[in-house]
Each structure stands twice: as C-alpha cells, then as structure tokens.
Structure prediction request, 173 residues.
Amino acid sequence: MRLEERAKSIRLIVLDVDGVLTDGGLYFDGQGMCMKRFHVQDGIGIKLAQAAGLEVAIVTGDITPIVARRAEMLGITECHQGPQRKTACVDDIRRRMGLEWSQVAFVGDDWIDMGAMRKVGLPIAVQNAQPEIKEIAAMITEHEGGRGAVREVIRFILTAQGAYEKLCRQWRD
Prediction:
C-alpha cells in the first residue's frame, strides 16, 4: 500500500520522546537537574493534528515531570511514561479508542520502539534513528528528532487526509 494511502487512515499518532520530541540530549543545570529541549514547531504540529480530530499520544520509557508538563501544555491526555515494552501500552490506547492497528502511526528512533513500530499501520523513523528502526519504517523523516520531525510527520498525514491547507488558512486568517 502506498504511503499516502496508509496516512489517510491514521486516527492516532503515537510519539516517543527522547530522540523524537527532543533532540535526544540530556541537559543538566548546576544543581544536577535534568532538562530536555522540545521544538516549538512540533508543538504547533500537534495542535494542528488535534484540530483535525486526530489523537496524539506519548509513550516513553523514561519517567520525568518534564514530559508530563509538556504533554499538559499540548493537551495530550494519553501520556504514558515508564513502559519498557511499548507495544502493550500502544495496544491498550488503541483498543480504548476503538481503533485498528492500521489506524495508528508510531514515530520512533531506537530499539525500544521496534515492537510497536512493527504492529502499527504507519511506522515512522526520524532521520537520526538507529539503522534497525529505519529498516522497519515505512517513512523516514528529513528532519532529525527534536528539530521539526514531528511537525513533518503531521504535515504529511494531514496533507494525505486533505486537511492541511484548510488548517493553515484557519491559522493564518
């Protein structure tokens, strides 16, 4: 099936955090507190997806209040931190939403994402993903994680669904 055809059926976009929503770097301040860098354009993309009626979820192996706060800022209610086996978590989300695997996209970058990516209808790797992740991806972004890759994914899906231009006009006008 063509990539655009797969994108047309997507109702849920699941995002990893480190290396996808962030650049994968861990920044520490003078007191040893960890910080993460998020890209504002990815956040706007998430808001566009939500405005189009798509669900967005976060599933990350890490546990940090930083991710919970970013999810809250973006209105993402499905924020799951800590699962080392992401497939079961994604399966639970999609079942509760009444979705088939073919209606789910997953954006990942590393081995922990592999199981879920093998199940979803649209597995996506960011440009700086590990080679094994790129091998199973149906799409590889031009942008690196934390540098607009999520916005690129959402633009692609919304364009395939015929919603992107209308949303752009609403934001511009």
Notes: DSSP finds eight helices and eight strands in the chain. The beta strands are 12-15, 27-28, 34-35, 55-60, 78-81, 104-108, 122-125, 139-140.
